[in-house]
Specification:
The chain is an all-alpha fold. The protein folds into 2 domains: 11-94, Rna Polymerase Sigma Factor, Chain: A; 107-198, PhyR, sigma-like (SL) domain (Butyryl-CoA Dehydrogenase, subunit A, domain 3, Up-down Bundle). 65% of the residues lie in helices and 0% in strands. The chain is built from 10 helices and no strands. The protein has helices spanning 11-19, 23-41, 48-64, 75-91, 107-113, 124-134, 139-150, 155-162, 166-183, 187-198. Helix 8 (155-162) crosses helix 9.
């Protein structure tokens, strides 16, 4: 018997069935976004156990409150926002125990997995070079870049997620691109990166 929902099922369809109490839809949503949320949590703390606990808490919360959860135009945005709020709330009282990363590691490998910023996956040297440049951006610029180009959130969604206005998001993106231009050590690879950015800005 084939599953009712697959990886090509639209998020909105899954969300609708999930809110009605469909366990298969809930399971597919959890499968689809578990890794994404886990990676996002690693942008705030290296404590994997804390991240996994916070993620499990979120998933349980979603199921228990499924009947009162609102519809959303973007399931990805809703889950990222909910998880960001939960993990920051978890980290705040444990600042002495948890080391905030202050940087967004592993950005380049995520690019190579999903419409990579760097088009040639086999070029490990270029990936390492890009990672070194991204590491030098301020943490807020790294987070906005991550949300915009890795999670494909719109500037308006990022603004809502970070509690800033959309113009601030655009300004941060432009500053980040300017910083990348200054930091990038060679013209040709930088132009490849910028062209990829510009296609989705």
């Amino acid at each position: 018997m084939s599953p009712r929902f697959t990886k090509i099922t639209d998020d909105a369809v899954l969300w609708s069935y999930f809110r009605e109490g469909d366990e298969e839809a809930y399971t597919e949503l959890a499968r689809r976004y578990y890794r994404t949320l886990l990676q996002y949590g690693q942008k705030f703390t290296p404590n994997v156990q804390l991240i996994e606990d916070a993620l499990q808490d979120l998933l349980v919360h979603l199921w228990l409150h499924r009947e009162t959860i609102n519809d959303t135009p973007s399931v990805r945005f809703y889950l990222l926002k909910s998880f960001r709020h939960r993990i920051l709330k978890t980290i705040k009282p444990r600042t002495e125990e948890v080391e905030l990363t202050g940087r967004f590691d592993d950005l380049v490998p995520e690019f190579s997995r999903e419409d990579s910023l760097i088009q040639v996956e086999s070029d490990q040297a270029l990936q390492k070079q890009m990672q070194g440049v991204l590491d030098q951006l301020p943490s807020r610029q790294q987070e906005v870049i991550y949300l915009r180009f890795f999670q494909n959130l719109k500037p308006e969604e990022i603004a809502g997620l970070l509690s800033i206005n959309p113009q601030s998001v655009s300004n941060i993106i432009q500053r980040a691109l300017g910083n990348l231009r200054e930091l990038w050590p060679s013209t040709l690879p930088y132009m490849i990166a910028v062209c990829s950015f510009c296609q989705i800005v």
